[in-house]
User: Which sequence fits this backbone?
């Protein structure tokens, strides 16, 4: 194509795109009042795609169940990828609200909610966010579906700090250098009042290096605040260096990503005795069965949260945004598959917690562990 | 219209980045993969000064340009020891170093937690809080940068840069100290990238290191290769195309469970086809 045609061709393309988008964008917010339009904004590509895709699967299962239970209901979803990145997330958010006119947004990514926070509060639509909000929480239209980092990690830290069988050992704390795990680490640091050595993981290569340091440094106890994959890889690397596994304590990811541990370690009996904090269990048997029937695999990390996010949104729905937000604030479900669901004054989920321990390769809730 | 205004703002910001990198890669022939680092330095300087000291945006932008300029002088001096592929690898290394600083100097940058709540620019009491006004501001900066680039590339200085690209040894025989020309254009390019960083930080109102990775440098390089190397209009056209293309793909009806992945694949295929049939870029004069 000759150079002189390129610029006009690009201008025509731009005008066409603008025309299609603008004239396709008809009427005001969700012109069909009897239908519900949900925007699902998840990291479907990039480093967090495993989490995003798992949440999507949980959400789709919840939608199937809701439609079966409410025949004739009209629910549409628009799914956009934010790649756990602020720029892509802002673009996806603008498209969902300006073009698709969704009634509510369900999302995961911490950097994205931090970037769109002011716009979301201004819009008034209910947003259910799974990741933590580092910008801070307030009594607004954003509901954080995971408890604040302080609550579960603080619980784990205080539990370990009160247990001489743990803190009397030489303790290492290994955590990912990502926004979520850094928040968890700070919560651990504020609540665990004994000595420990921190190890920051920037890439998977660090895991092998730290496994050697932990084994050679005779650390008797290791706190792991990482994604399930990295946690399992660290455990595997420690075992490779030294078959005597130190006492391992995990944050929630041992529970949520237990399938990953099985896959990477091959046999979870290798980490018998490891403990984890977890939220008191929800009704998961039927969920697990349905998930396996639909997808042919066990539910992975965060699928249960995705399932519950959809149910919380749909069971509180009102076409008036302020009423919907108010309904969500009052929402309570003791039987969520991810555990009991209710929100505090700032819209952050409250969940009772417990300790679980691996016995015979299985996770078992327990009130007391002899460390 | 918010969505369209948002896209237009991104095109303006990436247009500035494309124009800045084109000076180094297109006109001087130096394959640099550090642009995201200077973009990030501008963004972080602006974010830190605006949130930490309440400084005026425009003053923070100027300081960002100064810091980018100083860093680029040091980096450019080291890179001047390399040629061709080694230059590219060296610049790659610097991008990784700067990213690691953003990620790990947590007392300054908050690391992966990022810096939220970055305010919008204000001038004589007027705040660019509405996106339409911010679009106007970013277009003004784009036009300014375009005319500066046009002036540089149309001047005798620009002719020396092109000569360095074509045959550095030949031009140095004529007494031109090519090191200083290369350093000068590298610094100018970095300062322009910093402008884009300042605009980005203030527009998105939140930055974290993931916005300034090596992938971002490669994306900016793709903008000028697609648009056309050594052509200022090409840089802006490339930015428009690479920003618009994934947005158009959002409206293609891929199945939900693979839509995101299919968009990435389709985007990649389109770029490959464009390079196959138009290797000099849409309006380019020169191939790498």
Assistant:
């Amino acid at each position: 194509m000759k150079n002189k045609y390129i610029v006009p061709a690009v201008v025509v393309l731009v005008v066409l795109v603008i025309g299609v988008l603008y004239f396709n964008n008809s009427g005001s917010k969700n012109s069909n009042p009897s239908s519900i339009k949900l925007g699902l904004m998840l990291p479907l590509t990039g480093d967090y795609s495993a989490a995003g895709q798992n949440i999507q699967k949980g959400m789709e299962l919840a939608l199937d169940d809701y439609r079966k239970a409410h025949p004739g209901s009209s629910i549409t979803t628009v799914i956009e990828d934010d790649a756990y990145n602020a720029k892509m997330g802002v673009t996806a958010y603008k498209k969902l609200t300006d073009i698709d006119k969704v009634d509510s947004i369900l999302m995961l990514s911490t950097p994205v909610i931090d970037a769109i926070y002011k716009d979301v509060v201004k819009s008034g639509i209910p947003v259910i966010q799974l990741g933590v909000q580092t910008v801070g929480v307030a009594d607004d239209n954003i509901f954080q579906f995971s408890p604040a980092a302080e609550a579960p990690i603080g619980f784990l830290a205080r539990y370990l700090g009160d247990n001489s069988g743990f803190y009397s050992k030489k303790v290492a704390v290994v955590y990912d250098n990502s926004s979520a795990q850094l928040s968890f680490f700070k919560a651990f640091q504020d609540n665990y009042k004994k000595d420990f050595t921190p190890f920051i993981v920037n890439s998977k290569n660090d895991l092998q290096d730290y496994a050697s340091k932990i084994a050679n440094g005779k650390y008797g106890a290791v706190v792991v605040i990482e994604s399930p994959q990295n946690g399992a890889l660290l455990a595997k690397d420690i075992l490779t260096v030294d078959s005597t596994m130190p006492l391992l304590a995990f944050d929630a990811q041992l529970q949520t990503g237990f399938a990953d541990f099985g896959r990477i370690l091959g046999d979870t009996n290798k980490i018998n005795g490891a403990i984890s904090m977890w939220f008191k269990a929800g009704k998961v048997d039927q969920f697990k069965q349905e998930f396996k029937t639909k997808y042919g695999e066990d539910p992975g990390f965060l699928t249960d949260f995705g399932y519950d996010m959809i149910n919380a949104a749909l069971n509180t729905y009102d076409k008036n945004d302020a009423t919907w937000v108010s309904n969500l604030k009052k929402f309570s479900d003791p039987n969520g598959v991810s555990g009991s669901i209710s929100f505090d004054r700032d819209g952050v989920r409250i969940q009772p917690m417990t300790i679980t321990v691996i016995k015979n390769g299985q996770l078992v809730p327990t009130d007391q562990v002899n460390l | 219209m918010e969505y369209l205004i948002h896209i237009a703002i991104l095109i303006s910001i990436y247009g500035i980045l494309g124009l800045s990198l084109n000076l180094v890669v297109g006109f001087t022939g130096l394959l640099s993969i550090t642009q995201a680092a200077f973009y990030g330095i501008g963004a972080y300087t602006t974010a830190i000064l605006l949130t930490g000291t309440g400084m005026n945006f425009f003053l923070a932008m100027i300081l960002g340009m100064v810091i980018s300029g100083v860093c680029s002088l040091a980096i450019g001096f080291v890179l001047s020891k390399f040629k061709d592929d080694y230059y590219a690898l060296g610049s790659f290394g610097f991008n990784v170093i700067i990213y690691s600083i953003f990620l790990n100097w947590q007392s300054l940058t908050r690391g992966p937690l990022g810096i939220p709540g970055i305010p919008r620019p204000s001038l004589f009491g007027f705040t660019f809080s509405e996106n339409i006004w911010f679009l106007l501001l970013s277009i003004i900066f784009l036009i300014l940068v375009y005319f500066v680039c046009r002036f540089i590339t149309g001047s005798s200085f620009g002719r020396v840069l092109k000569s360095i690209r074509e045959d550095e040894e030949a031009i140095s025989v004529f007494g031109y100290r090519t090191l200083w020309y290369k350093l000068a254009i590298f610094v100018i390019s970095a300062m322009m990238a910093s402008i884009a960083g300042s605009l980005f930080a203030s527009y998105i109102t939140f930055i974290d290191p993931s916005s300034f990775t090596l992938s971002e440098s490669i994306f900016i390089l793709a903008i000028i290769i697609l648009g056309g190397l050594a052509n200022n209009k090409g840089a802006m056209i490339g930015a428009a195309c690479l920003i618009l293309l994934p947005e158009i793909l959002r409206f293609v009806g891929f199945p939900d469970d693979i839509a995101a992945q299919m968009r990435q694949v389709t985007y990649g295929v389109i770029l490959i086809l464009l390079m196959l049939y138009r290797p000099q870029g849409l309006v380019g004069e020169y191939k790498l």
About this structure: The interface with chain A takes residues 1-4, 6-7, 10, 100, 103-104, 106, 111-114, 116-117, 200, 204-208, 210-211, 233, 237, 240-241, 244, 247-248, 250-251, 256-257, 259-261, 263-264, 278, 282-283 of chain B (CB under 8 Å). The mean pLDDT of chain B is 92. The beta strands of chain B are 122-123, 126-127. Residues 2-213 of chain B form one domain.
